[in-house]
Amino acid sequence: MTQTLNTRKKILQAAISLIKKKGFQGVTTREIARQANVNEVTVFRHFGNKMNILNTIIDEYSYIPSFEKVVHEEIRWNLKEDLQIITKVYFTFFKENDDVIKIAYKELGSFPELDKKITTIPLQLKELLVQYFDRMQKLNKIKECDSNAIAIAFISMNFGYLVSLVIHNHDFGINEEKFIDDSTQLFTGMLDF
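The structure corresponding to this sequence follows.
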């Protein structure tokens, strides 16, 4: 079982490395197998085809499980602290998975079924945040607000900074810690009583 998991992981890592360099269309399963140091038949046995490899990469490197864990286990029901925790998890995910994120952007628009899968990830995050903001309102911890709009604004602000940082290597002249402090302070100021 462990050998199977290691083989699978080697194939995924090889695919990520090659797709990042050449794009999805430019990579063959033979190249993936060679880089993973496995037989091409092993690639097909684990994934069936090249598209399934890409789908698996997107599924396994989604940030939703990290956010679900945060929302269910780490939330303190203190707006500023919670938003800082959520933002730090978001930033950590982006930086640790920058290769996968770059692949997603590179391939955006190439495969409609993949585009749909990629767009469901931020929608799931939005729903988790809507639930959080709704609960905070019920607990009278924040002002009454449109949780959907606040969640979208929060995601958009962080996403914009991270895309600039990860995809374009530009930080707008503000370091990550200051951005997190200032952005959470902005939302705290808008929503606190």
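The chain has a mean pLDDT of 88.
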